[in-house]
Amino acid sequence: MPVPAERAGVPSIRRTLWLYLGVLSALGAVLLFFAARDYGQRAANRSYDHLLVSSALSIIDSVALVDGQWQVDLPYAALDLLAMAPEDRVFYRVSDGGDRTVTGYADLPPAPRAGADGAPQLFDAPYSGEVVRFVVVARRVSSASAQGEVRVQVGQTRRARQALAQDMVARALLAIGLLSLLSLALVGLGVHRALRPLVRIERDLLRREPSELQPLAVAAPREMDQVVAALNRFMGRLAASNETLRAFMAEAAHQMRTPLAALRAQAQLALDEDDPREMRRSLEAIERNATHMSRLLNQLLSDASVIHRANLQRFAALDLAEAVHQAVHEALPQSAPRPRLQLAIGSEPAWVHGDALLLREAIKNLIDNACKYGGDGALQVALTVQGRECVLTVADHGPGIPAAEAERVFERFARGGDAPGGGAGLGLAIVKRVVDSHGGRIDLSNRVGGGLVATLRLPRLHA
């Protein structure tokens, strides 16, 4: 399956895990290799150094001072220990305190520094065309007539040491290789098990129908709890949005069916009428129904826009006083008859976190309702700041609302029992949706002396 161009540069979790864990395993293997090589070399040196020192001590034990002359009864068995490696060569030298050779190879290289009293001195030096490992031991020898110092130097080429070290490193490499393969297998198993919850989630989502938006019931590790919770919240919002859209379409179709049927019937009557006066009355009825349908369509479009923007939640800091001024200007008719308006806005800043278009739409609907159903008195709009809330009130002088209908009128397409005809029943529903999306609340109450007061409260944004 080809990879989309926009996905080509997206890293894979599986590949990332393999990369980091594989690099970690490779670094571990390299470190183990160097550690094994160092250990092999030191172990080989310790083993053969022990043989060198043993041979030198055996030889020095065979040296005696008789009548002022050095006598050496060389124990060839001591040298035979070093000859166990057939490719190596062995060199020795016995000398007195004046560095005069008693027996052995007189041209052996001297020790680079003097050793501690009685302690064997080990060093490497080139001799006979290759690097040789030497040991020097010294001892004072006494006899009845004389005493003196004797030194024994024994050397061995390094081929057996290197062969032993290489053998140990080879065995270590075999173990490291097997350990690396086992580690990679465990890494593969770990990656597979770590990603298995993602595979289960993918299969669960693939098996679902488009309308199945219930929360995921797949068990996920704790590290994925937030991802699963976010996905469940998203599906919950999508399910609510789909349900809202379905209800909106069903109710819109129901609401549009009646005025369309009336328009068709009145148009048919107008076509059948010969009396100009009756025909005019039919055309006036058609015009009223068309106006009602136009208002209904505008309200439906406004409701759909509010639903969309409320779900987006693209809020910012805004001055509610400015939104009130704009809403008043847009909601009140610019030509006569123009309702009287009493606008009171406090001096304290009224900043909120929200969507300016949604808030203007809500305020416009409140003002529009007050203008239509508020009687002949002045329309009163006031904005104040009360503690942590910005409070907007829209009051009229109309008949008010029965207490039993104070909550029902916020439902879509719901209208008060005493409301005059021509309304769509969406204005207060739009206001309620906007207020809820901003974390506020709205209340309707009857004022003393007649009239309705709509009180909108929004959380204040402190500077």
- Structural class by helix and strand composition: alpha+beta
Enumerate how many helices there are, as a single number: 8
The count of domains is: 3
| SSE succession | HEEHEEEEEHHHEHEEHEEHEE
Measured on Cα atoms, how large is the radius of gyration?
51 Å
Mean pLDDT: 81
Low-confidence stretches: none
Shape: rod-shaped
Give your account of this protein's structure.
The chain has 463 residues and is an alpha+beta fold. It folds into 3 domains: 12-207, no CATH class; 209-312, Orthogonal Bundle (Helix Hairpins), CATH 1.10.287; 314-463, Histidine kinase-like ATPase, C-terminal domain (Heat Shock Protein 90), CATH 3.30.565. The chain has helices at residues 13-61, 76-82, 159-207, 225-272, 276-312, 320-331, 356-373, 427-437; strands at residues 63-66, 69-72, 90-96, 101-104, 121-127, 130-142, 147-157, 316-319, 341-345, 351-354, 379-386, 389-395, 441-446, 452-459. It has a 5-stranded antiparallel β-sheet with strand order 4-3-7-6-5. Strands 9-11-12-14-13 form a 5-stranded mixed β-sheet, covered by helices on one side. Strands 1-2 form a two-stranded antiparallel ribbon. A hairpin with a 2-residue loop joins strand 1 and strand 2 (69-72). Helix 1 (13-61) runs antiparallel to helix 3.
Give the key terms:
8 helices; rod-shaped; 3 domains; single chain; 463 residues; 14 strands; Helix Hairpins; Heat Shock Protein 90; 5-stranded mixed sheet; 5-stranded antiparallel sheet; alpha+beta
